[in-house]
Amino acid sequence: MQQFEVSGAPSVLLVEAFYGGSHRQLIDLLKNNIPGCSVFTLPAKKWHWRARTAALYFSQTIPTCLSYRVLFSSSVLNLCELVALRPDLAHLKKVLYFHENQLVYPVRKDQDRDFQYGYNQVLSWLLPEHKRRHQPAEMSHTDDITRQDEPQQSPRSDEDPDPSRCESRCESRIQRALSGAGAADLEKPLHIVWPHRWEHDKNPELFFNTLLKLKERKLNFQLSVLGETFTDVPEIFASSRRQLDSHILNWGFLPSKDRFLQVLCDADVVVSTSKHEFFGVSMLEAVHCGCFPLCPKALVYPEIFPARYLYSTPEQLCKQLQEFCKRPGVARRHVVTVDTSLYSWASLKPRFQTLLAAERP
Hints:
Blueprint: E1 2-4, E2 12-19, H1 21-33, E3 37-43, H2 47-61, E4 70-74, H3 79-85, E5 93-97, H4 116-132, H5 137-140, H6 163-179, H7 183-186, E6 190-195, H8 204-216, E7 221-226, H9 236-243, E8 248-251, H10 257-266, E9 269-271, H11 281-288, E10 292-296, H12 301-304, E11 310-311, H13 314-326, H14 328-333, H15 345-355
Parallel strand pairs: 2-3, 2-4, 4-5, 6-7, 6-9, 7-8, 9-10, 10-11
Antiparallel strand pairs: 1-3
Helix pairs in contact: 2-3, 8-9, 8-13
């Protein structure tokens, strides 16, 4: 468990039971930019155990503090259990952030769905009404809960390097394309990037099967497969690496954010094959770096991306990549019509400041 101290009396209690990936990105962003935060986390390991036992753990490790006014947590934590175990936290304004929906989260074919995780989310979501019925009237106005699963509520991390560096590289590439200079550069092999977690819900089978079809058709392309890995990595990553070895430029997690953004800026097309997505941070990061996005016409993607960037079938995905492989300059010259500034911290900071503000009871 990590605990981050703040100077002065803390007013915002940030609790994250799975401190990794987008969960960590958001917590670090708030910790670094919202005054008065006190942070308690558990490492991003053994997700199922975190969902089942984190409330008990945090109930014993979060110290009593009279200055807390707001409790912010992701829905990995069973908030209902934590408040039951720690009545002193019941009066706080509560903000619950849903990174995913466990009621419809894809499961592996050889597993039955464990509805306990979705049930925990439902209980946590319903907590405020239950608590209002049992709290003194003067406390009820501070007990609130807000769903934060809409796309516009997923800001970029302040751990990122200066965005101007990324923008400068991408603008230079676009200007070269628009001016007609660097024709040889425009016709070099298409660079495809897949920057997602190496887990089954990201549907790597569809992605790699599509690329193997491109290879069978003797199409030229380069490949970067990025993203975090966990204990149980789908077997298709190892087999696909062997079969696509001659096409690979980058393979595996890049610990340097600057290096990650550099690869995105060098790539031409970013692909999502996800079966479950509430937002898709890496897709927006790639678009911000100048990549042409190809996303399923499903999940959250139609809320963010115009129709020209969506595919409905695996055949459509393969056909679009095939055309780009034949004419890579088309993808490189394209300027994506998605305003990524809408999702920047500069745009969203006032809303988070309001969300994490609470009057003293």
